[in-house]
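If it is no trouble, might I ask you for a protein's amino acid sequence along with its backbone structure tokens?
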Amino acid sequence: MKLAGYVRVSTKKQSLEIQMAKIMGWRDACGHKVDFYRDVVSALNSRPAFDEMMSKIDEYDGVVVTALDRFGRSVQQLSNYFATLQEMKKELVVLDQNIDTSKKEGRFLLNVLFAVAELERDIIYERMEEGKRRALEKGIKFGRHKKKLPMETIIEHYKKGASYEWLASTFNTSKTTIWRRLRERGIIQPSL
């Protein structure tokens, strides 16, 4: 098989070598060909090498990674990428979890992992909602608390011509907050 090998680390202080060595060892033992795509970015940021790999996926029989968290950022994203690979009749090999979707056991294991992760997500959501309901019953309010600002000083500076930007920077808040507070005090009239 010809596979795209995807490796990623989050910072430049980390090395891709460990992941690449694992994949190369597997490649050599199985006799596959692997082209590497490398990203040095947090999973929360865009992944240019990953995007390039997925745009060229037609050239490969599938993707090999060392761990599922290298392939996707969340259960939903992993599930979507796996569905895309399935639609295109491409395989996914995950070395650390011993998953190979070219085999029925690998497809089964991956689907079980997705189902367990989805169940866990649903349980967490239910607990959060129950916690919110109990908190609301006790009178606890959610959302941002209004930041204490020295409004008399802000008004004084505003009347002397200080800009929203200067006020926000000086009082460590946003321009929108300054504008809202001035409007609440009747210093600024809401636009019609």
